[in-house]
Amino acid sequence: MIVDSIEMENFKSYGDKQSIKINKGFTVIIGPNGSGKSNIGDSMLFVLGIRANKTVRVDKLEDFIHKTDPPKKHCYVALNVISNENNRYSIKRELVYNHGEYKSNYYINDKRASRTDVLKLIDSFHIYLDAYSFVLQGDINNLVKMTGTEKRKLFESIAGIESYKERIESAQNDINGLNENLNSMDAVLLEIKSMLDTLEVDRENALKYNKLNKEVNELKFFLKVKDRDRINQELAMYNGNIEKSQSDIDNLENENKNLSIQRDEAINRIKEIEDKLDAMGGQEVKGIRKRIEELNIGIAELKTKIGSTGESKTNSEARLKTSREAYNFNREQLENKLKEKKNYESYLKGTENSIAKINRELEKFRQENYENSKLTREINDRLASIDIEMQQANDQIINDYDIRTIEQELSGFSRENTMNEEKIKEESIKVKDLKWKIDNLKKNIKEYSEEINEVNKKFLTVRNKLNELVTMKSNNDVEIRNKEKELRGLNYRGTASPALREINSMMETESGIHGPLGKLIEYEDKYANAVIVAAGGRLNSIVVDNDSVAQMCIQAIKAKKLGRLTFIPLNKIATSPDRQKAAELINSGNAIDFVRNLITCDPAFEKAIKYAFGDTVLMDTLENARKHMTGVRIVTLDGDVLDPSGAMTGGSIKNDEILANRITKAIAELEEQNEILKSEISFKEKENSEISSKLADLTRKRDISTSNINNYETQLQESENSIEAAKTRIEEIKLKIKDAEDRKSNFEFKKNEVKMQLFTLDKERKELFKKLKELAPENVEIEKQMEEELGNEMKSRENYSSKLAQIETEFKHFTEKSQELEEKITGLENEITKFTGMVAEFKNKVEAMEKELEENRAKENEIDSRSRELYTEKNQVSTARDKLFENIRKNDDLISNKKAIIAGLKTKIENLAFQLETINYEIENTGMEYIEFNMSISEVKQKIDENSREIEKLGAVNMKAIEQYDMELNKYNSTEEKYKTLLSEKNDLIDLQNQIIEDEKRIFLELFDTINSQFQKIYARLSEGGEANLEITSRDDPLNSEVYIKVKPRGKHMIKIDALSGGEKSVAVLALILSFQIKNPSPIYYLDEVDMFLDGHNAEHVGELFMENSKTSQVVMVSLKGAVTKFADNLIAVTTDKHGNTKIIQKRIGEGIGKG
């Protein structure tokens, strides 16, 4: 950068506004003494030197302002600078007098700026005023007069050692601070260690308690899991039993279906017998029979009621058993809670004894220290008073029986409501089930009635159809008898040969034999003569599947010597191709067709047909046949045959044979129809019997369903009444709950007030302890420990009291539950007694009705001895029917028993499910993980008792000790860690401090050697061969040593600078200053009359050096020597006008003032 110009106004001797151009190169300022030459340097220092040791030559700020009358109140200097980047900056400082004081304002490019902004900008130009870039008047003498220590400090300043010293001092301050912290931490660590030793015993007891208690909880949890597993196993077993019972029920119901079919058959048979007896007997018999039927139905209904009542009794017995099991389980829980209650009462009593003991010791301690001072006594008195008040407040909270009573009431109300809701739910399910059953029964009755109507219709339809079938069969029988009569009137007596009869017999047992071909074919009557003549004897050939069957048949008739037969094996029979003339005759349309094509038969027999009829052609008349004879076999409708050879066979055919065949075929068809009719009649008779049985069964079911509806409707009314009663009770309880909750809120408000009182008292107690600690710290620490111990015991008492209240609530719950179960058991026992009485009553009625039934049957038997055989059969059938009824009833009873078992099992399952739900809830809410113990259940329980005894032996346990110990240990570890960290930081700072000292020495010596080297060179040049040297008293400890300047002018001895003449001193000092400048180069140098003591010769040497330096930096010099100006690039001449204002004249050397 370069300083381009200086603007100033009212600055020292420059009263007018002035602008001084500072060109590049070497600028020399000349003028008479007092004209204001040095004020140009002061103006630059006014702007640049705001933080440097270089000061402007004024005593006070007002001396900067040009003296006038009246006095002016401001001045300013603006330094215009061009940076290396060719950016222009105007740095301006003004001094303004305002309200009795002077104030400096700074501007950069005419914009207000802070002093910091100006400093940053100057630093960016690398102008270092303290490194002798500005050399003022007196600086040379000052440097000469400096002591060795001051010279060494000058070197330190140039080397920037001050920053190192600041860092060393800062490090030392940090070390001192760390030492203080380390000492404090030592004391803290000792205090914490003492506290840890005190807490360790309590902590060990607390840990032992936790370990024992944890193991107890784990063992109890283990028992709960085992209970859950046991219940799950029982549930699986009960569910399996239910499945088996249901399977038994299904089997019994299937067996009942079969028995019902047999029973219905018996009823139908009885009906048939009674119908026959009705035809024999009169009105009395009908009345007896009607009464017998009524008695049968009545007995069946009563037995049904006995079964349903017995089922209800079995269900009640199952529920009674389950309730008793639940009662025993509840009593066991009650005993456990009682035991647990006693344990916690013992814990509470122990804690209260400990509290009383600590209170006595605390009172005694305070009494012993009572006489210390009046203030101490007053504090102790107040502390004792606070302890009493807090004790009373805690007692009030702990012994707040009102709230606990209300909570017990609420718990009881809640349980009762839960029971009522469960009852509503249970009865609602029952109501829903009963309604469903009633609706189903009504639906069933409707369906039974509809089905009865449908069955009646079906019965009529079947009966009509049966009559129709019987009529058809009867007609067929008449027709068969007529045909047989007609057949007997014919002369034809065709009989089957023995061989054929054998084959017919074999057809019933052997497969593959189809019979005579004539029996396997059908044809129209008009073709009968032609068919019989065309096939001839081959119609009697036996058709079989294969040659093996044919062989078997031949061997059979041969063995019995029954004659001979022709067989047609379908697998081997061969046929001849049609003659060409036969085909042509058919195609010409003159023939009717091949005879074989007029035959109808099973396709399997086509080869046999082809074999029997060949290519015989059928024609209408013999006359037409003759036209085409020879070369083809022709048969006419009358049965005339024309052989291919030309032979002709004809005449009359014996019609009896054909007629017999036709009659036989008709009889066979009628018999076949009769077989079908017999099957249909049998089916319809069976269907009719089934319909009759079904009708009787449907009627019985409808009657039973009607009876059941009445029973269910009674139960439905009872359940609905029970639901309404439960709902009414729930509403009543809700009002009681609201009242209890309001009372509880009031008590809790009072309880909160007591807690607030406790908080206030505790706060006051802490303040008193604080004061007491200031008066007697050693006693306070002891008292504080006793207070903490007392507080822990009181917390334990509160915990035990809370747990005891919870146990008492649970104890009351189990007590109430036991009472409920006792009432339930009593109700079920009464219910069972009621059902037992009902069953006995029903059995008595059945017995009476059965007796009446026997009497009526006896009367029925006595009425007509002529019907003895029918009565005997009827009695046998009735006995069988009754046996069937009895078996069905027994199965129904078994089914009822099975259903009762299922109901009982379901009740057990419900009870177990409730227990399982409770256990699962407890398991899920403990948050514990299951641990398997290799112990039996009894060993686990024994271990729980052992641990409980060990816990009792521990007495009151300070559970806070674990947390306090851990807190103190963490505090100790944390403090120790901080201590180690601080110690490490201290050592690091010491190492850093030593490193900075070493760096400081190194930097200093490097600077010293560099400047010394430059100094030697520059001095040799200025003195034309002289020698100079800088000496330091100790290179090992340079920062505590002294620096001296020794020179040897040409032709003289080496001496200290103090012994030189004024000119020689100036040359030596200027050489040193130039060395400084080379080490820390500046963009501008200012020197004020540094050539004062130089002669012309030496001044020339100095001017020449400054001229060389101006090639890289601006050099501005105030000079009194003409020898210097001849080396200048620019001259500034300064003078003063009559008003004391400095005036300047600026010239470049080339503009009128020449070098030399």
TrEMBL record:
SUPFAM superfamilies: P-loop containing nucleoside triphosphate hydrolases, Smc hinge domain. It holds the Pfam family SMC_N. Transmembrane segments: none annotated. GO terms for cellular component: chromosome. This is Chromosome segregation protein SMC. PANTHER family: STRUCTURAL MAINTENANCE OF CHROMOSOMES SMC FAMILY MEMBER (PTHR18937). It comes from Ferroplasma acidiphilum. Gene3D superfamilies: 1.20.1060.20, 3.30.70.1620, P-loop containing nucleotide triphosphate hydrolases. Residues 161-188, 228-368, 424-465, 653-757, 797-869 form a coiled coil. GO terms for biological process: chromosome condensation; sister chromatid cohesion. Keywords: ATP-binding, Coiled coil, Cytoplasm, DNA-binding, Nucleotide-binding.
